[in-house]
Amino acid sequence: MDFSLSEDDAQLVELVDRVAMEKFRPTAFENRDEVHRPVENMRLLGELGILGVCLPEEVGGEGRSAISGILAIERIAHACPRTGAAAVMAIAGPGMFIARWGNSSQKDKYLPPILRGEEAWSISLSEPGAGTALTDLTTRASIEGDVCRIDGAKTFCSSAGLNDHILLFCRFGPTTGGIGAVILDRETPGLTISKAHHHMGGTLWHELFLDNATVPLGNVLFEGNAFRKLMSSYSLERTAAGAWAIGVAQAAFEMARDYSMERKQFGRPICEFQLVQGRLADMWLRLEQARWLVYKACVDADGTASRMESSMAKVAATEAAVFVTDQAMQMFGASGMSQEMPLEWMYRMVRPYTVAGGTSDIHRVMIASEILQRRFDHRPARSDGA
Fold this sequence. Notes:
Butyryl-CoA Dehydrogenase, subunit A, domain 3; four-stranded mixed beta sheet; 16% strand
């Protein structure tokens, strides 16, 4: 089994790493809790062709495998967590959905601005009564002539007030097969975006209220009967979120490693104390284990991560990132907890990812389901015994 990168991927990593460290890192930790889109950074990535690295050549992408995008995301996040998060959505988010499942008009309209780094997207899945139980969503859509009308309410839609478009999951019919997706703009008639709410990492989320919200028929990505396809596209995004987490954790690890060699107590560098050595070893073990699960999820199955592999990658990577950033803060002592340093912000950035994109708990259930080859129904038994 060959664990080395291909020549093309090695060159990609070198390019992304050099550009990200030279252009993004110098200002990566400034204004940490100020909410803004890294517009210039994304445009630069667009100019370099990085944002379309995984998309087919016929839609303007580079036509490379998923591992290429994952490697790029990891290195971007290592240099700048905020730009890395934006790159996840550009490389493995709605653009991938549209490239795989959209019609030619949707591809022509929406993909070029994503590839140029000019437009950003949100995804709206959760509802007040449908979080992990996504199939309980009640937001409804109906086709009336040449328009689609949507009614309902969504919650926890990240950056909906900042981004240009929203890919919204809704129900066209009563069963799981009736779940589809519609493309919204911020100015969609009948759409109200709530005031911004703050996540612990400084990102924003919004509630969406849809009262006869109306879009052209051409904005319907799927009119139901597409739930499995849409969820299969989510496997890459989950793996990409894992790559982002690994990149942030790598940066935190390097800060802790370097500090352990510089900081002196009792007349010698703290790296000479065994408990510090053990802490560094544990951080590196968790980081490397997670990294290779992320890579494996992309390499197997011709670059398309399976549900089990993407779940394993996401759980391992996000939990490793929480562990590593926490341990890095501990190594810095009181200064690690200070908002004058970036580590506490990095911890706050990675911690929500054990919930976003599917909680670690439900991913463990999905992993167990694959191990046991059984489907577990979490709903209470019906009174009629069915």
